[in-house]
Specification:
The chain is α/β, with parallel strands linked by helices. It has 10 helices and 10 strands. The radius of gyration is 18 Å and the shape is globular.
Amino acid sequence: MKVVLSCTSNSLYDFFLPIVVDSWRRIGVESIVFIPEKRDERFNLAMSYCPDTTQWHELNIAEEREPTYFQCVRLFAACLDLAVDEILITSDIDMCVFSDFLKIRSGESIMIFGADLTPESQYPMCYVSMTVDQWRRCMNIDGKAYQTKLSEALDGIVCENMRGNHWSKDQEMLKNGIDNSGIRLFKMNRAFPNTQFATRRADRTGWVIGKDLVDAHLPRPGYADNSYKMIKELMAGQYPTADFTWMDEYRNKYISLL
């Protein structure tokens, strides 16, 4: 299994890059990350703290269209040269994970964990897992490059605020692709009753570090004093014997570049 992530050169997000990649590696999952072709020093620093096994794939997108394109490119990771039986799971760059539970498979079904966290017209990007072959069938990947598939899906959209008007475009495309594929689904719900807030998650909108966490939606900006303190307490609680001095070193270097 590999996790598919993406990140723009924005300090609200790129600071989390090595922390999130590290969290996936601790449950035995390496990362595929889509990144901008043009990057600043902070982004390059974040990359340098990720393991050598991290796969980097570049995108060249106009700045005003970056958020939507970088969200949606995760749907086209199966354009890469990967084994057809490799499992790909989608996630966000500000979502740390802690549980092997996310690696559960149900036969040849597409796994959707947290299916009740989005409106009925969408499936959540955190988390959908299936084989490369299934991704290719769902997203109609026909041997073209991921940048080409993105262009086919998004270049025709004309609006003043693409980020605002199409914030959920990735989840809508995911829903349509899966439903049209006819592949069997295995859905697992995790919302608190009558809400779209996830159980077993430490969420920045209501930070509680409970027991048996699956994941954590990290507070922003992650390098700020209070946010970083929360992140360190979270990681220490999940991995009490681990050495996270590298995070302190990384954060200090990152702040020096702001």
